[in-house]
Amino acid sequence: MRPPKVYSIDEHLLPINKIDTKAYYVIEKLRVNGFLSFLVGGSVRDLLLKQVPKDFDIATSAKPEEIKKIFKRNCILIGKRFRLAHIRFGKKIIEVSTFRAGDAKKEELILQDNIYGTPEKDVLRRDFTINGLFYDPEVQTVIDYVDGYTDLQKKILRTIGEAKLRFIQDPVRMIRLLKFKARFDFEIEKETLNALIECKQEIVKSSPARILEELFRMLVSTKSKNFFKLLDSYNFLDYLMPELSDFLKINNTLVFTLLEKADLEISKNSLPRSVLISCLIYPYLEMQLKEEFIDKDIFVHLGIVIQIAKESTNAIFRPFFQVPKKLKVEIISILTNQFRFTPINNSKKFKRLKIPRDPCFFMSLQFFRLRCLIDTNLSNIYHRWLNAYESKKIPKKIQKVKENEL
Ligand code: ATP
Ligand code: MG
Question: Residue 34 — left, alpha, or beta (φ > 0 → left; ψ -120 to 50 → alpha)?
Fold first, then answer.
């Protein structure tokens, strides 16, 4: 293998003051104990792009058990497919992985990746060139085995190694490719793009839980609209969420505007996952209610809405994903409460507003706010419900606990 390109601080200008002090501490401690250790992956990429990394990953020559010995009770070893060490500092976690020698040439799904290797080998099993950079804080250099640095400068997304092979080995990489495209708006290099188109049906072979995690991460990324548009336009929704894909073919406006408003909102205040997921289901639910009840002049009471909200949530995620039960309960509640705020049969419009005993009520208001950002005519109703909620005589202490739970 050819030697890596090494970029000095004068060249790469990585903002070292943005590196988490805990990450520095972990790297240093591993070194003092005789191991190699570098900052790696997304954090190096994000720092070079002058963005704030979400997490700081460290790669080291120390084996998981050796890491455990150094950090003792602050370290827990996790993962089966991919064994990792989590070093805990209160709520903060620094993820440390041992250099792997993943078989970059193997033509099948990788089920385990626990063969240890050198830094060079470790880079070759990573997904994209922009994610394959090491940063060595001791001498402040960026170490590049895969020309990731120039791809980052040129804004290019390219797999490390042969694209088709890398997607077959782990189809989640295709979803990750679209995530980086949505996030950075880089160009996808030709071979990588062709492989994405050719291998898309492989996606069903990957673990639904891993893909769901990437979808959830993207929902809170402020780029969810871009991401779901890409999933749709590259036909991944046909495989992952076929019902949503069909629905978007006839009516895609509301889903994408809800996501757009959520992206805007989340750049100011955080929103719970269930509120964000509801953006994908609410327009579909509206259509179901219209077709099955409103158009047939059937009276829609909240009991019916609960039932159809349940069916719609299942339909949107079927057949690939299993939504965790607690999340599903929240989503159904959020969706149902929308028809409390804006009832289909509007006769109770000026009745005193009754706040239900529902732990998801505040989240329902958060979703209603997104609807108001699209349809400003709803603002008055939103504020009436918000006031009613805030003035409801719940002892302050309990209310605080409830809202923290949200
Ligand atoms: P994010 O900013 O969303 O966290 P990330 O690139 O840091 O993006 P992580 O899931 O935190 O993603 O993974 C850290 C690093 O591990 C990646 O940058 C990449 O080098 C490597 N990696 C993650 N997933 C894969 C995969 N499926 N195949 C190969 N390498 C991967
Ligand atoms: Mg990361």
Answer: left
Q: What is the mean pLDDT of residues 25-36?
A: 97
Residues 313, 335 contacting (CB under 8 angstroms): yes
In this predicted structure, which of 38-42, 106-110, 380-384 has the lowest mean pLDDT? 106-110
pLDDT of residue 112: 62
Q: Which two tokens stand for residue 337?
A: 């409460």
Q: Which residue is closest in CA terms to ligand 1's atom 5?
A: 42
**Region of residue 50 (phi > 0: left; psi between -120 and 50: alpha; otherwise: beta):** left
Ligand 2 centroid to residue 359 C-alpha, Å: 32
Identify the weakest region by mean pLDDT among 109-113, 164-168, 258-262.
109-113
Among 106, 126, 184, which is best to mutate for testing ligand 1, by the most ligand atoms less than 8 A from CB? 126
pLDDT score of 351: 67
Report the SS3 class of residue 63.
Answer: coil
Contact 53, 43 (CB under 8 A): yes
β-strands 187-188, 156-157 pairing: parallel
Q: What length does the chain have?
A: 406
Nearest ligand, CA of residue 102? Answer: 1
Q: Residue 80: what pLDDT?
A: 80
Per-residue model confidence (pLDDT) at position 353: 82
Residue 334: partners with Cβ closer than 8 Å, 6 or more residues away: 274, 275, 278, 360, 363, 364, 367
- Interacting residues of 379 by C-beta distance below 8 A, sequence separation 6+: 372
Q: Are strands 92-98 and 57-60 parallel, antiparallel or unpaired?
A: parallel
Indicate the pTM of the whole model: 0.91
Q: Which domains does the chain have, with CATH numbers?
A: 1-154 (3.30.460.10), 158-206 (no CATH), 237-405 (no CATH)
Closest ligand 1 atom to the C-alpha of 46?
A: 2
- The identity of residue 64, as a single letter, is P
